[in-house]
Amino acid sequence: MAVGIFDSGLGGLTVLAAAQERLPDVDFLYLGDSANAPYGVRDADDVYDLTTKAVERLWDAGCDLVILACNTASAAALRRMQEGGLPKGKRVLGVFVPLIEAMTERQWGDNSPPREVAVKHVALFATPATVASRAFQRELAFRAIGVDVEAQACGGVVDAIEDGDMILAEALVRSHVDALKRKMPHPQAAILGCTHYPLMQQAFQDALGPDVQVFSQGALVAESLADYLERHPDMLGTGAAGYLTTGDARRVSDRATQFLRRQITFDAA
Fold first, then answer.
1. Based on the number of CB atoms within 10 Å of its own CB, is 107 exposed (0-12), middle (13-18) or buried (19 or more)?
2. What is the share, in percent, of the chain residues with pLDDT greater than 70?
3. CA 192: distance to chain centroid?
4. Residue pair 71/194 in contact by the 8 Å Cβ criterion
5. 156 DSSP 8-state letter
6. CA 69 to CA 6: how far, in whole Å?
7. Alpha-carbon span 98 to 107, nearest angstrom
8. In this predicted structure, what is the pLDDT of residue 237?
9. 1 vs 148, residue with greater confidence
10. Is 194 a catalytic residue?
11. Containing H/E element for 12?
C-alpha cells in the first residue's frame, strides 16, 4: 500500500529519503516529471496542468494520498486543486505548511489567529515561480505577524543539480546568498524552499554563516506525514512501491543513485 510522492524531477528524493527513514513500514511510489523539469521557470497555469496530470497518474496507480514534494507545484497548484474539489477518498498535501509550522513553533492543526513569533527576519530561497506566487508569504501570514520575508529567486540551481554539476550549483548558491544579503544583511532564519536545495544545504549554511538557522523540508515533511497517517491510516491506498519518471529512465536512475548514494532504478511513467 503506497503513498505517492511527486516532484518535477529529482529534488523530491530528499523528501522521499526522509519519509522512508521515518516510516520504514510504509511503501512509496515516486513520480518525477523529469521530461518537463524544471518547473520553476514555468508559468502558474503550466505548472498546474503538469501537476494535475502527474497526481492523476499516481491516483490511477492506487495512491490515495499524494505529497507534492515540489515547492513550485505546492505554490502554484495545490490550493487550486483543493478548491476545485478532489475525487472522493483522494488527498493531496504540500510541503510549505510543515516548514512554516516548525519555524513559527506551531503544532499541526493549530488554527488559532496569527501571533508574534521569535523569528522576525526570514530569507526565502526558492525557484522563480515559487517566489512569484508569494504562496510562502500567504501561508505564513495565516500563522504569524511581524515577520519580514525577503525572497531570492535562485535561477539555475535546479538545472545544475539535475545535470549533476555540483560545482556550478555551489557557485550559484553563493551568488544567490550574496544577492539576498544585499537586501537583508542579517537574516535570522533561511528557508530552503525547493526540495532540490537540501542537496546543497551545507553550501547555503556556509554562505549564510553559522548564526542563521537553515530550515530544510525533508525531515519536517516526513514528521508531518507520520502524524497525518497516524490520524488517517485509511489513506495508505493500494498502490505498489517504485520509482517512475517521464524522462530517460536510465539517465534518471543514474542521477538518483548519485544523489541518494544507493541503487535507485526508475521505470518509464
1. exposed
2. 100
3. 9
4. yes
5. T
6. 6
7. 9
8. 79
9. 148
10. yes
11. none
56 Cβ contact partners less than 8 Å away, ≥ 6 residues apart? none
Q: Is 70 a catalytic residue?
A: yes
Cell 556550478, residue located: 168
What does 114-131 look like in DSSP terms, one character per residue? PEE-S--EEEEEE-HHHH
Q: Tell me, what amino acid is at 131?
A: V
Neighbour-count burial of 133, counting CB atoms closer than 10 A to its CB (0-12 exposed, 13-18 middle, 19+ buried) = buried
Residue type, 244: L
- In the numeric block, the cell 497516524 is attached to 230
Q: Exactly one of 194, 203, 220, 264 is catalytic; which is it?
A: 194
Q: How far apart are the first and last CA of the chain?
A: 19
What's the count of helices (H) and strands (E) in the chain, helices before strands? 12, 12
Exactly one of 70, 100, 131, 203 is catalytic; name it: 70
Within 8 A by CB and 6+ apart from 183, the residues are: 150, 152
Backbone Cα Rg of the chain:
17
Cell triple for 15: 523528501
Q: 0.85 exceeded by the pTM?
A: yes
Query: Is residue 225 exposed (0-12), middle (13-18) or buried (19+ Cβ within 10 Å)?
Result: buried
29 pLDDT exceeds 70?
Answer: yes
Query: What are the residues facing 192 on neighbouring strands?
Result: 125
Neighbours of 231 (CB within 10 A): 9
Q: Residues 6 or more apart from 126 whose CB is under 8 A from it?
A: 40, 71, 72, 75, 136, 151, 152, 153, 154, 191, 193, 194
Q: Distance of CA 66 to CAs 25, 29, 57, 254, Å?
A: 17, 9, 10, 25
Q: Give the integer Cα–Cα distance in Å for 212 and 91.
A: 35
